[in-house]
Amino acid sequence: MSIERVAAGFQLGFHAIGDRGTEMALNAFEAALRSAEKNHSVTPAGSTGPGDYRLRIEHAQVIAPKDFKRFHDLHVIASMQPNHLLTDMNWAESRIGPDRAKSSYAWKTFLDNGVVLAFGTDYPVEPITPFRGVYAAVTRKNEAGTKSYYPEEKLTIDEALRAYTVGSAYAEFAEKQKGTLEPGMDADFVVLDRDLTRIPAPEILGSKVLRTVVGGKTVYEAH
């Protein structure tokens, strides 16, 4: 089915959490892309050129080490939600074992392999606030700061914010409209009560939105 959908110009997103599910998704994408290349299939609206499908895997939480390169080679986007780590770190390693846990929630390894990260919250499964996920991405610690989960996979604050903004815009073919603040782009932004790039990581959790602007219009102001 993925072959037919890609041939028709659809952008596909598969949900896959475990390493076997992710491998199955990558296999399906590879078959679809090979067929599309052979048959000169239609690309999705917003593509920058032939072959620009921006297929993605949602969650991609447990990855076999060999498959990080496949993400890169197939240009598959890792659409992930860092706040899942805060929930799952209490039981993940005991269920999947330490060997597989080493390559789970592997945001840094994805970036090191040249894979685009697109971050979100996965609301309503997790709280809608993005600050919880930003905190998780840069610390890989629980909210109390007492437990860590493979800290070598943590990101810098700039990498985390880029995944929430530029990465997510790219994942929906909208990088020419949003994801950055510059002339000609949609004026979508929030004003916060603190600078996330300058404060100690634990303070990220207490961040408050003072103003929300969508398309240049204020749609929310704190009172």
Task: List the keywords.
single chain; 223 residues; alpha/beta; TIM Barrel; 4-stranded parallel β-sheet; 3-stranded antiparallel β-sheet; 35% helix; flat
Plain-language structure description:
- There is one protein chain.
- This protein is an alpha/beta fold.
- It is built from 9 helices and 7 strands; from the N terminus they run H-E-H-E-H-E-H-H-H-H-E-H-H-E-E-E.
- The protein has one domain: Metal-dependent hydrolases (TIM Barrel, Alpha-Beta Barrel), CATH 3.20.20.140.
- It is 35% helix and 13% strand.
- It is flat, with a radius of gyration of 18 Å.
- The chain starts with a helix and ends with a strand.
Fold blueprint:
Layout: H1 2-7, E1 13-16, H2 19-39, E2 56-59, H3 67-73, E3 77-80, H4 83-88, H5 92-96, H6 98-101, H7 107-112, E4 117-119, H8 131-139, H9 157-171, E5 189-192, E6 209-214, E7 217-221
Parallel strand pairs: 1-2, 2-3, 3-4
Antiparallel strand pairs: 5-6, 6-7
